[in-house]
User: What shape does this take?
Amino acid sequence: MPPPVLIDAIDRVREQDARFRREAYLFLFASLGHAVDRMPAARRDDMERRHLTGAEVLAAMVDLARREFGPLAATVFREWGVTEGRHVGEMVFQLVDAEQLAARPEDRLEDFLGGPDLLDALAGSVSARRPAGH
Assistant: This one.
Protein backbone atom coordinates (compact mmCIF):
# COMPACT_ATOMS: atom_id res chain seq x y z
CA MET A 1 0.00 0.00 0.00
CA PRO A 2 1.36 3.45 -0.89
CA PRO A 3 2.43 5.73 1.95
CA PRO A 4 -0.30 8.02 3.30
CA VAL A 5 1.56 11.06 1.98
CA LEU A 6 0.86 9.88 -1.58
CA ILE A 7 -2.81 9.21 -0.86
CA ASP A 8 -3.14 12.63 0.78
CA ALA A 9 -1.49 14.28 -2.23
CA ILE A 10 -3.80 12.44 -4.64
CA ASP A 11 -6.82 13.48 -2.61
CA ARG A 12 -5.64 17.12 -2.68
CA VAL A 13 -5.19 16.93 -6.46
CA ARG A 14 -8.67 15.44 -6.80
CA GLU A 15 -10.18 18.24 -4.71
CA GLN A 16 -9.06 20.62 -7.46
CA ASP A 17 -9.73 18.28 -10.41
CA ALA A 18 -11.91 15.22 -9.81
CA ARG A 19 -11.91 13.94 -13.41
CA PHE A 20 -9.73 10.93 -12.62
CA ARG A 21 -10.37 8.34 -9.94
CA ARG A 22 -7.90 7.78 -7.13
CA GLU A 23 -7.22 4.29 -8.50
CA ALA A 24 -5.93 5.80 -11.74
CA TYR A 25 -3.23 7.74 -9.90
CA LEU A 26 -2.24 4.67 -7.90
CA PHE A 27 -2.10 2.61 -11.08
CA LEU A 28 0.11 5.30 -12.61
CA PHE A 29 2.59 4.78 -9.78
CA ALA A 30 2.44 1.01 -10.23
CA SER A 31 3.10 1.54 -13.94
CA LEU A 32 6.15 3.68 -13.23
CA GLY A 33 7.56 0.83 -11.13
CA HIS A 34 6.71 -1.61 -13.90
CA ALA A 35 8.57 0.54 -16.43
CA VAL A 36 11.67 0.73 -14.23
CA ASP A 37 11.57 -3.04 -13.60
CA ARG A 38 11.58 -3.64 -17.37
CA MET A 39 14.68 -1.48 -17.95
CA PRO A 40 18.08 -3.00 -18.57
CA ALA A 41 20.08 -3.02 -15.32
CA ALA A 42 22.59 -0.47 -16.62
CA ARG A 43 19.86 2.07 -17.26
CA ARG A 44 17.93 1.25 -14.08
CA ASP A 45 21.05 1.80 -11.96
CA ASP A 46 21.83 5.19 -13.54
CA MET A 47 19.60 7.89 -11.99
CA GLU A 48 20.01 10.16 -15.01
CA ARG A 49 19.08 7.48 -17.56
CA ARG A 50 16.27 6.01 -15.41
CA HIS A 51 14.05 9.02 -16.15
CA LEU A 52 11.03 7.95 -18.19
CA THR A 53 9.65 9.65 -21.27
CA GLY A 54 5.93 10.18 -21.76
CA ALA A 55 5.90 7.42 -24.38
CA GLU A 56 7.58 5.02 -21.94
CA VAL A 57 5.06 5.82 -19.21
CA LEU A 58 2.17 5.18 -21.60
CA ALA A 59 3.69 1.93 -22.87
CA ALA A 60 4.21 0.71 -19.30
CA MET A 61 0.63 1.62 -18.33
CA VAL A 62 -0.80 -0.22 -21.31
CA ASP A 63 1.38 -3.28 -20.72
CA LEU A 64 0.56 -3.48 -17.01
CA ALA A 65 -3.16 -2.83 -17.60
CA ARG A 66 -3.34 -5.61 -20.17
CA ARG A 67 -1.64 -7.97 -17.71
CA GLU A 68 -3.77 -6.95 -14.73
CA PHE A 69 -7.15 -6.42 -16.37
CA GLY A 70 -6.93 -8.40 -19.62
CA PRO A 71 -9.75 -7.63 -22.04
CA LEU A 72 -11.36 -5.32 -19.47
CA ALA A 73 -8.41 -2.88 -19.44
CA ALA A 74 -10.11 -0.26 -21.63
CA THR A 75 -13.29 -0.52 -19.56
CA VAL A 76 -11.36 -0.02 -16.33
CA PHE A 77 -9.62 3.07 -17.71
CA ARG A 78 -12.96 4.48 -18.90
CA GLU A 79 -14.32 3.99 -15.37
CA TRP A 80 -11.31 5.87 -14.03
CA GLY A 81 -11.88 8.75 -16.49
CA VAL A 82 -8.60 8.07 -18.32
CA THR A 83 -9.39 7.73 -22.01
CA GLU A 84 -6.43 9.29 -23.80
CA GLY A 85 -2.68 9.73 -23.46
CA ARG A 86 -3.17 13.39 -22.61
CA HIS A 87 -5.03 12.36 -19.46
CA VAL A 88 -2.03 10.32 -18.31
CA GLY A 89 0.21 13.33 -18.93
CA GLU A 90 -2.15 15.59 -17.00
CA MET A 91 -2.07 13.16 -14.07
CA VAL A 92 1.74 13.05 -14.19
CA PHE A 93 2.05 16.82 -14.13
CA GLN A 94 -0.56 17.14 -11.38
CA LEU A 95 1.61 14.80 -9.29
CA VAL A 96 4.71 16.79 -10.22
CA ASP A 97 2.96 19.92 -8.95
CA ALA A 98 2.01 17.98 -5.79
CA GLU A 99 5.72 17.08 -5.36
CA GLN A 100 5.07 13.35 -5.70
CA LEU A 101 6.93 12.99 -9.00
CA ALA A 102 9.84 14.84 -10.55
CA ALA A 103 10.04 16.28 -14.05
CA ARG A 104 12.92 17.63 -16.05
CA PRO A 105 12.69 21.09 -17.60
CA GLU A 106 12.33 19.53 -21.06
CA ASP A 107 9.37 17.34 -20.02
CA ARG A 108 6.11 18.47 -21.59
CA LEU A 109 2.48 17.40 -21.67
CA GLU A 110 2.94 16.99 -25.43
CA ASP A 111 5.24 14.03 -24.67
CA PHE A 112 2.05 12.05 -23.96
CA LEU A 113 0.39 12.91 -27.28
CA GLY A 114 0.78 11.55 -30.77
CA GLY A 115 0.88 7.84 -30.03
CA PRO A 116 -1.83 5.32 -30.71
CA ASP A 117 -5.28 5.83 -29.23
CA LEU A 118 -5.01 4.83 -25.56
CA LEU A 119 -8.27 2.88 -25.43
CA ASP A 120 -7.40 1.01 -28.63
CA ALA A 121 -4.00 0.13 -27.18
CA LEU A 122 -5.62 -1.06 -23.94
CA ALA A 123 -8.08 -3.17 -25.89
CA GLY A 124 -5.13 -4.77 -27.66
CA SER A 125 -6.06 -3.59 -31.13
CA VAL A 126 -2.80 -1.62 -31.44
CA SER A 127 0.54 -1.83 -29.69
CA ALA A 128 1.62 0.92 -27.35
CA ARG A 129 4.53 2.81 -28.80
CA ARG A 130 7.89 1.97 -27.34
CA PRO A 131 10.61 4.48 -28.23
CA ALA A 132 13.62 3.12 -30.04
CA GLY A 133 16.84 2.85 -28.08
CA HIS A 134 15.27 2.65 -24.61
